[in-house]
Amino acid sequence: MDEQEVRKLLSSIPDPRLGNDIVSLGLVNSISIEESKIKISLFLGAPYSSEEQSIAQQIRALFSDSEFHIDISARAKKNVSPEDDLLPTVKNVIAVASGKGGVGKSTVSVNLATELSRLGARVGLFDADVYGPNAPRMIGHSGQPLETKDGKIQPPEQFGVKFISLGLLVGENDPVIWRGPMVHKIISQLLSDVNWGSLDYLIIDLPPGTGDAQLTLLQIVSVTGAVIVTTPQSVVLDDAEKSLKMFDRHGTPTLGLIENMSGFTCPSCGSTHDLFGKGTSEDFANKLELPFLGRISIDPLVRKGSDEGFPAVLNPDSTAQGDFQIVCQNTINNVGALIRKLHSDNYAD
Predict the structure, then answer these.
(1) Which of 25, 106, 129, 320 has its CB 3.0 to 4.6 Å from that of 344, i.e. a possible disulfide?
(2) Residues 6 or more apart from 145 whose CB is under 8 A from it?
């Protein structure tokens, strides 16, 4: 089998999103054949994405009788120069935001990071909510981070997630009072001084709103895409639109909307009660032509897990476990589709 034959076989595999085969889209970087071993380099950018895993599985099926190796080379496009890049070893940065506080943004961030780690990804979680750093409690770790020999901060690790939070560096009950320049400095320092190592994903839990922390992040980090957390209430959606406009003005793609607190299923009668409304977030997403990433139901075990440091996505008794898993897959599938489309567009040009 020669390279032309291999390429012809690969052209039978469609991309699940982009409407063409992986060869025509430029997703096959290179093919090399050495004796009986075939090496294929692919441009896939979202590790553990079910859609990209499907592409790899189809390739394995085509060459099941041959010895072959698949190399994944893609990473998110960087909007900063290599010398200014604070996160050179991070493939994808996902910002989790909301227009209003109290919608469960930190809960979504912690569960998203934990599920990615459970899938096998190398994951970091940066709690950038400088005014209410809750990630340490939610992920079940309150010890102070260690310092490396070169003066870097070694982030603690819990459930396979490396994480850092201002909550680890200040007193548990100390108020956090930051003005704009201080916010910029602490976020920049925490990002650059932490020894993240090689990561597939860094989840950044932002404060609510569109203030200094958000603007700082968008100025100093190449964010792959943003996830907006809402509830079904119209007043929350009004504020969510402000967050969407902020990311759009800074050229940051929105990966989609997540509707939290979507409905409560009564354990006694089995009926579902829509305490905060129903369907409004999906309608809102459709109106703005944005992906809808899924709903997360109200479950007391989500609250219990957040208070006790055991994310609900790890709890098989939680009715929200499957919701978090669906949201996670939809998010990273959208990351992969975004990166492949950008590459394909450049390839076509």
Answers:
(1) 25
(2) 153, 154, 155, 156, 164, 168, 169
